[in-house]
Design goal:
By secondary structure, this protein is an alpha/beta fold. Helices cover 63% and strands 6% of the residues. The chain has one domain (3-271). It has helices spanning 3-23, 28-33, 39-69, 77-92, 95-117, 131-145, 151-156, 161-182, 208-217, 219-230, 262-292, 294-297, and strands at 195-199, 237-242, 249-252, 257-261.
Amino acid sequence: MRRSFLNYARAGALAGLLAMSASAAHADTLQQDLKDLSEKQIEDSVEFAFGNALFFMFHEAGHLLVSEFGLPVLGREEDAVDTLSTLLLLEADDDVFDTALIDSVDGWTFSADASEAAEEEQALWDAHGLDRQRAFNMVCLMVGKDPKKFKQSADDVEMPQNRRQECAGEFQKAHDSWFGVLKPHLRTGDKKSKFTITYKPAKTKDLKDYVDLVKEAKVLDLLSELLSSLYVLKDGIKLTAAECGEPNAYWSADEREVTYCYELMQYHTQTVAKYFREEESGDNSESASNESDEEESSTKPTISKNIIGTATPRK
């Protein structure tokens, strides 16, 4: 990827998001979602939501590229574009996108933990893989490219060493396959494809704060910059942020439109904020137990204080 895009991502979107984390928290809904969190936890929560937003948008970009270029997909398309979105983020070779990958793995882990805790029936028939499988597949590609950089992610999901060794070959095969079929569509001239970017206002007051976050993060602008910088696409593709009634993101081939739902930003913010509160509660409980039984407490594991990029201690 081009350095101008990486600088744009870091300086424009991520810096803007973190700057807003304190000021925007004064608004009613977001303030309630981030209630009782420290300033650092607020920043981590918003950054976590931003990282997951990036992955979801890159995932939908995968559907877009398959559809617009008529690319062959051998197997389930959802699995294929999970792989493509991970590869696109890895190709950036930049801390912003590396963090987005780690946050996304954590996001799938959160979702899997919640489903298992609620004893929900696993949707084995679904077009998507199970959430924990999606996390493992992402980590495999990550350590396949750089086992040292992403060692912590592999450790957190307890990926066996022999599986990590297999991932190097799987990453290379996926990389060569995807970028091989995309090569004929690479942009070689100066002309960039034109997208129609729309941040729709929220229908309900509860999401107004998240509309501001998504706009400040320039989530749609990031995707537009990426695609127009790399590939030759017909003008007129719509990138839309809107209230959808559910936390999700979509690609419509008929409408030639990617839609990111504001509810998804709220879902990821609430998810990690909930973890922080539960972690604080666990710390308080452990402290009380330590006071009552010092000998027993000496054998208890320490709860991690850094959730971004870790999964092991989550409930």
